[in-house]
UniProtKB/TrEMBL annotation:
Cited SUPFAM superfamilies: PP2C-like
Matching CDD domains: PP2Cc (cd00143)
InterPro entries: PP2C, PPM-type-like_dom_sf, PPM-type_phosphatase-like_dom
Gene3D superfamilies: PPM-type phosphatase domain (3.60.40.10)
Membrane-spanning ranges: none
GO MF: protein serine/threonine phosphatase activity
Annotated PROSITE patterns: PPM_2
PANTHER family: PROTEIN PHOSPHATASE (PTHR47992)
Protein name per its UniProtKB record: Serine/threonine-protein phosphatase
Amino acid sequence: MAVLRLPGTPETAMHTSQSAAHAASIEDYAHSAGWELRFAAITDIGKRRTVNQDVYLLHPSRRLFAIADGMGGHEGGELAAILAIETLAAYFDEVGDMIERTPADRRSLQHNLIAGTKLANAAVFQEAAERGSRRGMGTTLVALTFDETRAYWSHVGDSRLYRFRRGQLERLTRDHSLLEETLERHNITHRDAAEFVASFPYKHVLTRAVGNQYSVDVSVAFSELEAGDVFLATTDGVHNALDDEEMAGLLRDHPTDLSAACQAIAQLTLSRGAPDNLTALLVQAHGPRR
């Protein structure tokens, strides 16, 4: 297990797991402009990989949470994911004190997610260019932040963000992958296309990734917060093993214990063989405080 803390932010945790027998799990809470944010995360190397290229970020003082799934060889993918997360967190540290977290600042928060992701892209791309052996490395990236009334998120690649509200799980992101684009082009839903998805030969081909190209398009969105909202971010090692209803069921089974929910997601994924690294991150909004 490697646990890294970013300089100058002792409460910030970035985790990867290098042992097939152990997983990183952490649960804590923070306050966001009157809302109490409870959060937990877990990562595991899985049962077939020799290195964990997944990374998650918990940065409560900036109300910033993120996951990344690296790609590009034994060391390149892990480096890409770590570098992207570090760059995103550093950018939020630099600009965080200048931004008032109010509904009027929606565009500023969305801009910060886009800018932080684009800076992460530049950092990974430059690192790959300077080290020829790591050319082509990249990473997915999902980032989530909050103000007084809303949640904001950005994503690149096929890591996902879901919202669990009133017992139902809704997927908030669409994969930047050849498979997803093919399904959308032919108006095929995942529920109706199980056989097609299983036989599609390019299901792991991404159409966007952080660091693969000089520039990257970043998808951003926001939603109004409701008390009790739970946001779930997963890498493909989880959502390729579990369907949406299975994940929803695990969240229903653990409505107040986010750490237990993370453990349950990891255990069920591992029971399916876990050929890939797996990461799940949960953030629950409580409040606002009176």
